[in-house]
Amino acid sequence: MLKDERGALCGSFLPLGCASPSCGAPGGQRGFTIMELMVAVTVSVVLIAVAVPAFSALAARNDLTVATNSLRGALLAARQAAVTQGRPVGLCAGSPTAGCTGNWRDGRWMVFRDADHGGDLDAGETVIRSGGVPGGARVDGNGPLDAALVYVPMGHAEWPGGGFGAGRLRICVPHDLAFNARELVISASGRVRLVSRDFGGSCPAL
């Protein structure tokens, strides 16, 4: 039998594979079997099921850290500006365009020169610093932080109308992490203390 005839017979009677490397797929290679593909898909599904929750927890923890650092930096910047410039400096929830809204859930904040100690951004008063927190983090404030906190040149915090302005900012992520919230506690002296809190994945109002 000629060589060409042997190749034709092999291709006719062994369509699903070939014992000899000389026939079948070019170069003696073969594709995946159905069983191999099923095993590969199963392994991929298992890996995704493990990786997605881990990635979600990592992203939530990163949002918590970034938001905490952002707000802590804003408080420190407000206090330092008041001391170094010798003028009242306010901190509030809001933005240079909207002014002080008092709505921390919007995730926006600003530090500004508060010449009249009024707790709002008035004409002629300058924004020193502004920013926001990641969308995955929730922020609440109490005490003077419901409206605005004013640092005076002596370094302590006050209400806009006067009086010591102690209060708290709570940063929280709605994720089942160990210690899914942090609180920035502002003392009457103006210093900031960080406290970790665990609410079991929820974010109750402050």
Structure description:
This protein is of the alpha+beta class. It has a domain at 57-197: 3-Layer(bab) Sandwich (minor pseudopilin epsh fold). It has helices at 3-13, 34-85, and strands spanning 89-95, 99-100, 108-113, 127-132, 138-141, 148-151, 157-158, 167-172, 181-186, 192-197. Strands 1, 2, 3, 4, 6 and 7 form a six-stranded antiparallel β-sheet that branches. Strands 5-8-9-10 form a four-stranded antiparallel β-sheet, with helices on one face. A hairpin with a 3-residue loop joins strand 1 and strand 2 (99-100). The radius of gyration is 31 Å and the shape is elongated.
Fill in the keyword field for this structure.
206 residues, 31% helix, 4-stranded antiparallel sheet, 6-stranded antiparallel sheet, elongated, alpha+beta, minor pseudopilin epsh fold, disordered N terminus
Helix tally equals: 2
Query: What name is given to the CATH topology of the domain at 57-197?
Result: minor pseudopilin epsh fold
- Give the percentage of residues in beta strands: 15-25%
The biggest beta sheet is recorded as: 6 strands, antiparallel
Tell the overall outline.
Answer: elongated
Q: Can you give the mean pLDDT?
A: 84
Amino- and carboxy-terminal Cα gap: 90 Å
